[in-house]
Design goal:
With about 650 residues, the protein is an alpha+beta fold. It has a six-stranded antiparallel β-sheet with strand order 1-2-3-4-6-5. Strands 14-40-39-38-37 form a five-stranded mixed β-sheet, with no helix packed on it. A four-stranded antiparallel β-sheet has the order 16-15-42-41, with no helix packed on it. Strand 21 and strand 22 (about 450-460) form a beta hairpin.
Length: about 650
């Protein structure tokens, strides 16, 4: 076989080294990036697709949006675009295998292992769906598993191939050139029917993945593509307990609901499917939808916490494995049409035939300098990488979200405004006066969204109104401001909105990201301190009333749990995390069942974040950061000294604002 002519050439700053895999729509190469120097998986799209103007424009637009997804189980995209007439995506190179290879080598997986993998994939999908993206090619070959670091480490899970994503309800499973995009074995019925696609399309495909994990085969394993399509369109998939003896019958209704023909009959969120699978894994009946479950949850669980902060663990540099060759290609519309005709004929033919571990200790940190510091930690080792000067910083008695990472910067808020810090050097790039024309007042919260950074400001003692400010992270310029409320304490981005809470009047407000128009205002009562988005809901913590409120923006329903002294909240790894400053605990709440698991962390936890594969808590009174492994609950204490106040995490580091 002749060598690929692209081997040894350079494209968009990437030197192509070898072929990792080929599919009908693309070729994936191992490539090397000059700066920063690293190996990447470089996907080049088939020329016939790149020649279509509509496909090219949408590919570039949606790939760049997908690159902004910040979640520990989303394979990081380093770059995407067009170079020399070629569409490309550069992704993290994962050293490991994929779920398809794991099933082929190990056979069908246990219910517990399946639940672990699906929970991580579901978290990635929910994050994408919150940004209005549909993956539309969820399959085992796109679930990457990085090599573990020992016999007890099963490896980190990534969902890859977001280059096929598209905006929710932007169209069907057909491209502008009349090609079906996806993999036949895992495609939802609406992908064949030309109907609009949404999050439930991915939920169906994830249900197919669950079926294959538990049985070793996809739900309709047939040689003829038309027969596979007929199965998805017309047949009820076999019960997993019948297809794989030994699988608990409790799994049958879970998979059946995930693969319902009508999208309205499926789980409406991937996280809901993962939650039902987790419960069924204990051989109990599958749970109901999250809103109903949470309302019946046990009360008086301890907790508080804050913010989301996603990322990937510090594992060896990953590799994207070769794409699946099994029917993985773009099908011309004529092929789909003929197949559908065959399906109709088949239909006619068939119609004639009727506990908490003790915290471990890490090594001592470098000496502390006096002042306010931004401390950078290595998430793998827990070692202090750098201490640099931090801007003036005021908490106002609430947890809030005073530091965030993303969009090429670290963003710290305080009495001086919003400060943009370069993550590679720790140096301040800009200090931005947010709050419109306000000459004083506190900046209380910050959140990073696609191509924007959002901050809320207000000072009730000074008689100043609350202000929401949008900042361009590339230029550090204020784009827009809007006045509202009296004392906004936190801001979050997701579920098609920018969300703020007001500690004075108990309001939860949703703003349209594109116009900053208030879409809705809901009074959740009390004195809310923090707000985060995830697991299909908006979560509001109230340390005064001791409540955690779950608000569903689609139905308008809200339900509250009693959580003693809830200063803040974080969402990630399929759970909601809250801290209790008085008790010194971190509580993990299952959003699907409302069940809670509490463990000890440090003294007076002041803030919590999710990212880099772990849950992180800043403990203000003992100078420590607690690192919790969400898979087994193991807690490790990292001593940094001083008075850690706020914390954020990204793909490369953990960031702590430390008052010393």
């Amino acid at each position: 076989m002749a060598q690929d002519p692209r081997i040894g050439t350079e494209l968009a700053g990437f030197r192509i080294l070898s072929v990792l895999g080929r599919g009908g729509m693309s070729v994936v190469y191992l490539a090397e990036q000059a700066f920063p120097q690293r190996k990447v998986a470089l996907k080049l799209v088939a020329p016939e697709l790149a020649e279509d103007e509509r496909f090219r424009e949408r590919f570039i637009r949606e790939s760049n949006i997908a690159a902004s997804l910040d979640h520990p189980n989303v394979l990081p995209i380093y770059a995407a675009g067009e170079a020399d007439g070629v569409l490309f995506i550069a992704m993290r190179h994962v050293d490991g295998t994929d779920l398809r290879g794991l099933i082929r080598s190990a056979g069908r997986l246990s219910v517990e292992r399946t639940s672990e993998i699906v929970s991580e994939v579901a978290g990635a999908l929910d994050q994408a769906h919150d940004q209005g993206l549909v993956h539309r090619d969820v399959k085992p070959a796109n679930v990457l598993i990085a090599s573990g670091r020992g016999p007890e480490d099963r490896g980190h899970v990534y969902l890859s191939d977001f280059g096929l994503t598209k905006r929710t309800l932007s169209g069907s499973g057909l491209t502008g050139t009349g090609q079906f995009v996806g993999s036949i074995e895992y495609a939802a019925p609406e992908q064949f029917q030309g109907r609009p696609l949404d999050a439930r399309t991915d939920t169906y495909s994830l249900g197919c993945v669950v079926f294959e994990c538990l049985t070793g085969n996809p739900p309709f394993p047939r040689e003829q593509e038309a027969a596979v399509m007929y199965g998805h369109l017309m047949e009820t998939p076999p019960a997993v307990s019948e297809a794989a003896p030994g699988v608990p019958p409790a799994l049958d209704p879970v998979v059946a609901k995930a693969m319902a023909k009508d999208p309205d009959d499926r789980y409406q969120r991937a996280g809901a499917l993962a939650g039902a699978l987790r419960q069924a894994a204990t051989d109990r009946a599958p749970a109901a939808e999250p809103a109903a479950r949470l309302g019946r949850a046990t009360k008086d669980v301890a907790g508080r916490g804050r913010g989301t902060g996603p990322a990937a663990p510090g594992r060896p540099s990953p590799v994207e494995p070769a794409p699946s060759r099994l029917r993985e290609r773009a099908f011309p519309l004529s092929v789909v049409a003929v197949a559908l005709i065959v399906v109709v004929a088949l239909v006619a033919w068939f119609a004639t035939r009727s506990g908490t571990p003790a915290p471990a200790r890490s090594t001592s940190p470098p000496p502390i300098r006096a002042g306010r510091l931004l401390v950078q930690l290595d998430p793998s080792s827990g070692q202090v990488v750098r201490r640099s000067a931090a801007p003036p910083f005021t908490r106002g008695g609430f947890s809030g979200n005073a530091v965030a990472s993303g969009q090429g910067g670290i963003w710290v808020v305080g009495s001086g405004g919003l400060t943009h810090i370069d993550p590679s050097t720790g140096q301040t790039k800009a200090t931005i006066r947010v709050g419109g024309s306000l000459s004083s007042g506190f900046t209380n919260g910050v959140a990073v969204g696609p191509r924007s950074v959002w901050a809320v400001s207000g000072d009730p003692a000074g008689g100043l109104p609350g202000v929401l400010t949008e900042v361009n992270p590339a230029t550090d310029e204020v784009l827009r401001t809007v006045r509202f409320g009296t004392y906004p304490t936190a801001v979050a981005v997701g579920l098609s909105g920018v969300w703020t809470v007001d500690a004075t009047n108990g309001d939860l407000s949703q703003f349209a990201p594109d116009t900053m128009r208030i879409l809705k205002r809901v009074n959740v009562g009390g004195s809310p301190a923090d707000v985060v988005v995830g697991e299909g809901a908006v979560w509001v913590s109230d340390p005064v009333g001791g409540t955690l409120t779950r608000y569903d923006p689609r139905t308008g329903a809200s339900t509250s749990l009693n959580v003693a002294g809830a200063d803040g909240v974080a969402v990630g790894f399929g759970s909601v995390w809250v801290i209790d400053s008085t008790a010194g605990t971190l509580t993990q709440i299952d959003p699907s069942t409302g069940s809670a698991d509490t463990r000890r962390v440090g003294n007076s936890p002041n803030d919590v974040a999710v990212g880099a594969g772990f849950v992180w808590v800043a403990n203000s009174r003992d100078g420590t950061v607690s690192k919790t492994d969400p898979r087994n609950g193991t807690v490790t204490e990292i001593r940094i000294g001083g008075d850690p106040r706020s914390i954020a995490a990204d793909d490369e580091a953990v960031w702590v604002v430390d008052q010393v």
